[in-house]
TrEMBL record:
InterPro entries: Cro/C1-type_HTH, Lambda_DNA-bd_dom_sf, TransReg_Diox_bact_type
Listed Pfam families: HTH_3 (PF01381)
Location of the HTH cro/C1-type domain: 16-70
Name the UniProt record assigns to this protein: Helix-turn-helix transcriptional regulator
Organism: Albidovulum sediminicola
Source domain of life: Bacteria
Gene3D superfamilies for this protein: lambda repressor-like DNA-binding domains
Organism lineage string: Bacteria, Pseudomonadati, Pseudomonadota, Alphaproteobacteria, Rhodobacterales
Keywords: DNA-binding
Length: 89
């Protein structure tokens, strides 16, 4: 089983950026609301870091959405980005 998570990290980065921008927040705004550094948000959005569960909880709260929402967006992104995905399920 391939345990590489490059696709997962890239998908999370994209979801986080899209959610933040849709909320009309800068990285600094989200960092303040989530009580993390703006640098950490930047690292997450560029795939240089992965969130812990507690960081995911704080970020979700900062965005005003549930962790379930973030994970659902992430799963949707992973499915739609799969090379073999044809658009039908």
């Amino acid at each position: 089983m391939d345990r590489s998570n490059d696709r997962l990290v890239a998908a999370f980065a994209a979801v986080l950026r899209e959610r933040r921008e849709a909320a009309g927040m800068t990285q600094e705004d989200l960092a303040e609301r989530a009580d993390v550094s703006a640098r950490f948000i930047s690292f997450l959005e560029t795939g240089r870091r992965q969130p812990s569960l507690s960081a995911l909880s704080a970020i979700s709260s900062g965005l005003g959405v549930s962790m379930t929402t973030i994970v659902a967006d992430l799963e949707e992104r992973l499915v739609s980005d799969r090379p073999e995905h044809t658009g039908s399920q």
